Every structure is written in C-alpha cells, then in structure tokens.
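Saturday, quiet lab. Running sequence design on the structure tokens for the scaffold JK sent over.
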C-alpha cells in the first residue's frame, strides 16, 4: 500500500474501533492510540515469522484487525467469542498470551533467546506502554536484555497515561526525554559531524574514537536505556506514519537491543476519548452504560462503597493511608485522593512494591490499605507473606473484583485469592455478603492489628439480608437462619444463590440452616464443631475449589471428626481456567447458579436416602 493508502486505512480502522467497541464494550482509548504504530509494525515486519509481544495486550485490537480477525469484533470479550487480549490459540500472529502488565520484555527476550539457540532468524518486538514500564518486572528484563546483547526491539509506547495519569519518577524522566525535541536531530547531526572528523591512523585512532564517544556523551547525554545496554532511539511521533515506517526500517537493520521511544496520544481521533482517556480506557457494553446513568452512582458498586467508607474512616483517624497500583479510580479511591493527597499513594503498576511499601508504612505506625484487584494481588504474594505476615503487620488488603471478573477472561479472574491468602499464618480473610457488611468489615479491618484482607466482587454491591447486621467479630460466622439436617455455608457473593436454594429446600419441606461464613480465616471453630449435627453440609463460594472455603471446612471438619456422618459437597470453581463471559454465564456453566446448586443438592440427597 502507498503511504496515502496506509493513512486512509488508519482512518478506517479508527472509525471501525469507535463504533464496534462502543457496541460490545472493551478497551478503546489505548487502541485508538496505537493505530499508526500497529500499521507501521505490520508494514515493516513480517508476522508471524517476526514476533510482536503486546504488553498487557489490551491494545492489540488493531493488530487483530490487521491479522484477519475483523469478523471477531462482533463477539469481542463475549463467552466463546474473540478475546480482548492476545491469544496464541486464536492466531499464530499472537506471539505470546498477555493480560497482566510488564511481562512483554521478559517474554520477548525469552523468544529471542530461543530463536538464537535454535539458530533461527526473525525479529522479536515487545510493545510496552509507559504505564507498564513502571513495573519492576520490565526493568528486570531490561537489565538482562542489555547484558545479553541479543537482537531485540522494545517499543516504548509513551502516552503519559496508565489507566489514570502515569505516576512516578520514570514518568517525569520520560517527559523530559519527550520534551527534548531536538534530541534526535542533535544526535543525528552530531553523528554526522563526528563522522567527518578526520581520524589519525594507527595508535591515535583508538584515542580519537574514545574522544568522539566522550564528545557525543557530553553533547547528547545517554538515556537510562543506553546505560542498560540498549540503543535508545527517539522520541518519534507515533502518529506520523511516514516517519514511523522510516524509523522502523532503520531499526530493523540494527543489531543488539534497541529501545524505540514512541510518543502517542491515548484516544487519538475520538474527541471524547482524547479529552477523558481514563474513562475511555475501557468502555462498558452500550446497554450497561445506560443502566449506570439511571442508577445512583454513590452506592453502585463495592468499589464505590470502599471509597466512601475509607474516606469517612480516614476523617476520624489520621493514620489511615491508601495505596493503589495505578488504578485509583477503578478501585474507588478518587475521592480519597482529593481529600487526603498526603495519605494517598499511587505507586504505578507495581503490586509487589505496593505491599512491601504498605508493610513499611505499617511498621512506621500508619494503617495502610492496599486497594487492588484480586488478580493483580497475585503479583504481591511473596510480599504479603514475607513482608507483612511474618512480622504480623497491620496492613489491610481491599481485594476488589474477586470472583468471576467477566469479559477479560482467564488472565483477570479473581478466583485464587482465598487459596493464596488463607494458608498464610497471621492473615485474616473476610468476605462480605452485602454492602453494609462490607463497610463494617472495613471498619473492623482498620482496627484489627494484623494483616487483614477483605475480598469482594466486581459490580453492584448487593443489598441482600439487610437486616442481618450482627457486629463483626474475629472468626465468628453469622447464622442467618437456624435449621436441621442440612446446612448451607456461603461466602460473600454466594449469598443470593444460597438464599434462593434455601427457599427451594424449604418448599420441599426441609429446614436448612443458612450461615454466612464472614471469616474464611480464622474459620469459626464453633461452627465447624456444630457440623456433627447435620446430615448434609454444603459450602458455596466463587473461588477456586482448592484452597478456599470448601477446602478449609472439609479439612477442619474431617480432621476434627465433625463430618463423619455427613454428606459434604463444596460448590466452587473447578481446577480449570475460566474463560471470558458474564458472571451469570459462568455461574450457570459451572453449576453455581441457584438451579445448578439446587439440582446437585437434590441429587446428593436422593442418592443417600
Ligand atoms: C499487573 C497488572 N496490574 C494492573 C493492570 C491493570 N491495567 C491494565 S492496562 C493498565 C495501564 C497500562 O498503561 P500503559 O502500559 O501505559 O498502556 P496504555 O493503556 O496507556 O496504552 C493497567 C494498570 C494489569 N493489567 N496488570
């Protein structure tokens, strides 16, 4: 295609993305920002022989379009449909599966090392945003790539935005580089000047070239990336196709690790998204958008309740601090940030650091709350164990989007937290059944001097069992209804299902006990001992079955001899990765909706009559 045709293509792609993604929901602003960059990459390189690794992967839509997946956009992020992230199972052009940030340089370096070992050719390119570059893993990879010296291209897509505005010293540094507009031309001019400097032959040649390097460094100081062993090129305008193509063609012929710094605008070409890239980072499906507007925002979601309650409690207690890893608005901390800027910390996409930083704050006498999605807290596991729990520090974890996360799929499911938190000594782990209990649990967590996590789901904060509001007591479950023969023990967002199943069992003439576990850890010992009174014991949770509520009740119950005469069944997610789709679709599929649970319970009871 001619340059003019490529530019027209960019326009068409933008128009397509805006209309299609607004219909299905998905990541919009980041994709609008990489239209020219993606076209230029596919123009200059030959995928899948040349491999492109997209960091996080939320900006891979243009790449999907250019690799023959236009039709898939109708089912983007839907159950059984096209993924919103790179998926090797979907296309050979998706060189590596991503979803979590800051992995691209490591993965690309691995692919490059494999290429070298196998004696093969082809370029390997990592495309990483300035937000993802703030993650420590990216720097670990740069550290190794610079030393390895292999052919590797890292494209730093700098739009000054993470989901929110990028935070940290690296952002300032990149801004500095970006604003040195004369940098590239100065570098090129200088190289030409030094090329012309006559070299004296023999012994003097080495000294002269050393002098040249010295002069070059004095006039054009190396970037941090040069110091890491990369050849830094940039910044280049990421929307100027002609320029991008010429730079990429040049880069293609270069040896060793190259870092190309590209400057783009998030939301480019869609005025609303350019103005508010944070809101347009990820848009909801059309129908959901309208719902949101018609409802009362303040109490809509668990994240909202969290933001409201922590701000309220921080008014009373000057030692409460809040930490986010680059997602202040998503976790509900915008209000807190405005009200208490000194006690608010956005650490960038650095969950591991967030946890150890919080442990330091706690050691220094503050009460830090790390607000983070369940799936991203996986990054902080060792820090929770090693830095917070062993020292029994008072760090609170507000674990958002626990359970089924929806359209993002496997990489974003919040199903593993109960397992990875509950086996850590000293940890307290809670699951609220509704918005009020969540607010109470947060208050409890801020007073309980130990590492304490509350895990809650994405979306609307339920209002079920409003009347059941017994004070939150460490390790005490809440009996919602007493009963005999059957006991249903549920965690958090399984409250609605448990209530519906209990009603159906009552209609069958049964009288099931209904218990809200509240504390996954420490689990209620009295409740466990009481299990000896029941013939049927059922646990319900939206978490991986292994290591969650069911596992804990089974272990405590069996080892204590309280389940000897009982039929036990744990309703939870099986040992498989749960694909994209809505929560209700997944719940139905895995038999965790009221119909599925009731049916299974009936089967178990009929079998054991
Ligand atoms: C480990 C991890 N933490 C948080 C996120 C959530 N997240 C998705 S995209 C994003 C911002 C990425 O910013 P950047 O790399 O600059 O890409 P841009 O969207 O600006 O193109 C964040 C924080 C994630 N995917 N992975």
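Result came back. Writing it out in full:
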């Amino acid at each position: 295609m001619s340059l003019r045709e490529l530019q027209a293509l960019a326009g068409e792609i933008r128009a397509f993305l805006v209309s299609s993604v607004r219909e299905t929901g998905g990541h919009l602003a980041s994709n609008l920002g990489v239209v020219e960059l993606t076209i230029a990459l596919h123009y200059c390189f030959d995928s899948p022989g040349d491999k492109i690794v997209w960091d996080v992967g939320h900006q891979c839509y243009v790449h999907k379009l250019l690799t023959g997946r236009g039709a898939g956009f109708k089912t983007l992020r839907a159950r059984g449909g096209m993924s919103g992230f790179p998926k090797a199972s979907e296309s050979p052009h998706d060189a590596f599966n991503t979803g979590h940030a800051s992995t691209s340089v490591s993965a690309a370096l691995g692919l490059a090392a494999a290429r070298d070992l196998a004696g093969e050719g082809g370029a390997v390119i990592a495309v990483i945003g300035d937000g993802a570059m703030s993650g420590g893993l990216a720097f670990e990879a740069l550290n190794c790539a610079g030393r390895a010296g292999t052919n590797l291209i890292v494209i730093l897509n700098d739009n000054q935005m993470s989901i929110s505005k990028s935070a940290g010293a690296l952002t300032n540094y990149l801004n500095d580089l970006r604003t040195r507009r004369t940098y590239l031309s100065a570098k090129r001019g200088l190289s030409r000047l030094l090329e012309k400097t006559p070299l004296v032959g023999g012994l003097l040649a080495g000294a002269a070239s050393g002098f040249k390097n010295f002069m070059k460094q004095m006039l054009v100081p190396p970037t941090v990336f040069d110091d890491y062993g990369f050849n830094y090129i940039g910044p280049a305008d990421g929307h100027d196709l002609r320029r991008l193509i010429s730079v990429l063609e040049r880069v293609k012929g270069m040896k060793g690790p190259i870092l190309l710094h590209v400057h783009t605008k998030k939301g480019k070409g869609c005025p609303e998204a350019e103005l508010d890239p944070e809101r347009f980072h990820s848009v909801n499906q059309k129908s959901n958008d309208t719902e949101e507007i018609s409802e009362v925002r303040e109490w809509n979601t668990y994240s909202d309740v969290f933001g409201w309650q922590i701000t309220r409690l921080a008014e009373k207690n000057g030692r409460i601090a809040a930490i986010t890893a680059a997602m202040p608005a998503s976790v509900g901390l915008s209000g807190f940030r405005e009200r208490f800027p000194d006690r608010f910390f956005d650490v960038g996409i650095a969950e591991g650091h967030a946890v150890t930083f919080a442990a330091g704050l706690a050691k220094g006498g503050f009460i830090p709350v790390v607000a983070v999605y369940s799936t991203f807290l996986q990054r902080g596991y060792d820090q929770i164990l090693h830095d917070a729990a062993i020292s029994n520090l008072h760090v609170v974890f507000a674990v958002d989007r626990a359970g089924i996360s929806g359209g993002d799929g496997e990489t974003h499911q919040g199903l593993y937290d109960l397992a990875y938190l509950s086996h850590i000594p000293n940890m307290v782990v809670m699951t609220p059944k509704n918005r009020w209990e969540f607010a109470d649990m947060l208050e409890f967590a801020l007073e309980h001097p130990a590492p304490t996590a509350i895990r809650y789901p994405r979306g609307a904060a339920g209002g079920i069992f409003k009347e059941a509001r017994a004070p939150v007591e460490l390790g005490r479950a809440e009996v919602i209804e007493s009963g005999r023969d059957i006991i249903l023990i549920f965690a958090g967002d399984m409250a609605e299902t448990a209530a519906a199943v209990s009603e159906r069992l009552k209609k069958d003439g049964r009288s099931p006990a209904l218990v809200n576990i509240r504390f996954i850890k420490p689990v209620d010992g009295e409740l466990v001992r009481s299990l000896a009174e029941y013939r049927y014991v059922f646990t319900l949770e939206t978490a991986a079955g292994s290591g969650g509520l069911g596992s804990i009740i089974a272990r405590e119950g069996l080892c204590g001899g309280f389940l000897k005469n009982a039929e036990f069944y744990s309703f939870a997610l099986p040992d498989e990765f749960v694909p994209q789709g809505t929560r209700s679709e997944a719940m139905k599929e895995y038999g965790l909706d009221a119909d599925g649970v009731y049916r299974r319970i009936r089967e178990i009871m009929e079998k054991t009559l």
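Notes for JK: The two ends are 73 Å apart (CA to CA). Residues 199-206, 288-298 have pLDDT under 50 and may be disordered. Ask whether to fix the surface positions before the next round.
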